[in-house]
Amino acid sequence: MNSPNGKRGWMQYMLKQVYINKTVLEAAKERISKVFDDFPNICVSISGGKDSTVLAHLTLTEAHKRNRKVGLFFLDEEVVYESTIKQIRYLMNLYPENTINLWFQIPFNLTNATCLSETQFIPWEPGKAKIWMRHKEPDSIQHYPWDKEKMTIRDKNKGFGFYDAIENFENSRENTAFLVGLRATESPNRWRAVSRNPGHKDWFWSTKMKNGNISAYPLYDWNFHDIWKYIYDNNLKYSKIYDYMYKKGMGLQEIRVSSLIHEKSFKALVELPEFEPKTYDRLLKRAKGIQVGHIYGKNNEILRARKLPKNFKNWMEYRDFLMDTYPDPSKKWIFEKRFKNHLNNNYVARQQCRQLLLNDYENNLPVDNKPDPREETIKKWRELL
Amino acid sequence: MRKIETSLGTYEIPDAPIIKTKKGDLKLPALSAILVPIELVQANNYNPNHVDDNNMKLLELSILENGFAFPVVTVWDPDIEKFVIVDGFHRYQIMRDYLQVKQLPIVVLEHDISQRLAATVQFNRARGVHQVDLMGDLVRSLFEQGQDDEEIAKQLGMDIEEVFRLKQVTGIAELFKNQMYSRAWEMQEVEDIG
């Protein structure tokens, strides 16, 4: 196997985390400065969340110093908190003379995890302008700014999705460094994948892409409290959702500001009316299944498949029932095909139930297909006794 | 006027007054409430609503401070000869167990079983929620009027933690101001001895 710097031989090399004599802030500023030295074009992905707020501010500060411009890229899922939108506008107005606004308001497919009859939600769907959550921004990008002939779609079944939109945008640029607020402590798996092969020079905090582009992660070693300290020290604004959720007693680490309806974030619907009643009212009219998400978002039986409903003997039986009654024939075969290759036990079946309940035909919450650990333990004890 | 014969005597229920609305006539059973012995009232067996202990204490406090302002909603079940609760089970429980009263104000609807089931859910679910930031404003203004955290917690049925969080004006970032930045790290290549 190749080691990261290309050496090959009998000696095994591995990457190890080594602390250096700098703070994460000093180190991040240096990394960002290097990006400015080596890349003519820079683009920061922003979500309205705390990490990308810090990254955008650091990058814009450097751009201002050097009299350069950087792109702020926001892919607008339409069904987001109003506070998220405010935050995006705030970031785009920080250094307008150094900012290229890349606010995308284009149609793409999003999973609607709370609704079985309308499994896909299309933000900014043409013809539905009357019920869109908001008006489009006057300065946003509203049409696919790439060659339609060359547009790529990873999975034809799912159609043009969130990641396709990002990928096509990135591939439409060249010699660009795309900066992302990924942190190792937050997403260890993604970080491990990133750090395996440096995308540029010895920058193990970057990955290589097409057209001389890279994506880079200057905040990779930041901890949660570093982010908040930076926001405090620089008197930055941040999404009000963080304060609301804190006031509600939620763990600070579990707060997300992204789309309100996909399979990892629908729990946000439970509190939404308490945070942003107007957003909730508009969402009720805009997408199906919102009320289900609101009432049962944290319920252990209906959406999360944590507890077996009392009318079923085991998870296998429940899965078969959910399969028989799955309402969308155009998606049902996807589950049938996927489950055919799975083991038939309670452990696997519970996860299959979760996919069916959340409408996860995209397989975003993959099934861990292995023998039931509980049965294995019982078997082991039986042998011992 | 309805007359209902019970094991503890006959009760007369006045006809509910009617007022006009944009959508037709509206009955006002609230105005024909009657006072009955509490042992004539019985819970239904289908109510899915659950109230936690803190909110039960708050409900008790509310009844003591504001009086019993909402009669318990019932229907008369001739088979078991009881007034069966459609809405207000927890108010009934407070009166029976916490305050140990002998009598309970009720209104008696003329619903059949399916109307009853629906009415229970309608009463339970057609309720609002409190906006977090307005709730915060409310807690702060109680605080500014000189109530301490414990009084506010008792008055509003919150625990101290919730009061503290709601009254925090400063926001999350403030909590981290005295932190030090972490030490930076790099990935370095080392020989794998193992």
Structural class category of chain A: alpha/beta
Q: List the strand order in the largest sheet of chain B.
A: 5-9-7-8-6
Helix run count of chain A: 14
Give the helix proportion of chain A (percent range): 25-40%
Run of helices and strands of chain A: EHEHEHEEEHEHEEHHHHHHHHH
Count of runs of 4 or more consecutive helical residues of chain B: 6
Give the N-to-C terminal Cα separation of chain B. 91 Å
Read across the widest sheet of chain A, the strand sequence of neighbours is 4-3-2-7-9-8
How much is the average pLDDT of chain A?
Answer: 88
Oligomer state of the chains in this structure: heterodimer
Instruction: Give helix and strand order of chain B, one letter per element, not per position.
Output: EEEEEEHEEHEHHHHE
Largest interface: A-B, 50 and 32 residues
Assign a percent range to the helix content of chain B: 25-40%
- Class per helix and strand makeup of chain B: alpha/beta
Q: Give the DSSP E fraction of chain B (strand runs of 2 or more residues).
A: 25-35%
Q: Specify Rg of chain B, calculated over alpha carbons.
A: 26 Å
Give me the count of strands of chain B.
Answer: 10
Global outline of chain A: globular
Distance between the termini of chain A: 45 Å
According to DSSP, the number of beta strands of chain A is 9
Structure description:
The complex is a heterodimer of chains A (385) and B (194). Chain A is an alpha/beta fold. Chain A contains 14 helices and 9 strands. In chain A, the strands form 2 sheets. Chain A has a 6-stranded mixed β-sheet, sandwiched between helices. In chain A, strands 5-6 form a two-stranded antiparallel ribbon. Chain A is globular. Chain A starts with 12 loop residues before the first strand and ends with a helix. Chain B is α/β, with parallel strands linked by helices. In chain B, the strands form 3 sheets. Chain B has a 5-stranded mixed β-sheet with strand order 5-9-7-8-6. Chain B has a two-stranded antiparallel sheet with strand order 1-2. A two-stranded antiparallel ribbon of chain B has the order 3-4. In chain B, helix 5 packs across helix 6 (160-167). The chains are: A alpha/beta (385), B alpha/beta (194). At the A-B interface, strand 1, helix 1, helix 6, helix 7 and helix 8 of A face helix 4, helix 6 and strand 10 of B. Strand 1 of chain A pairs antiparallel with strand 10 (183-191) of chain B, so a sheet runs across the interface.
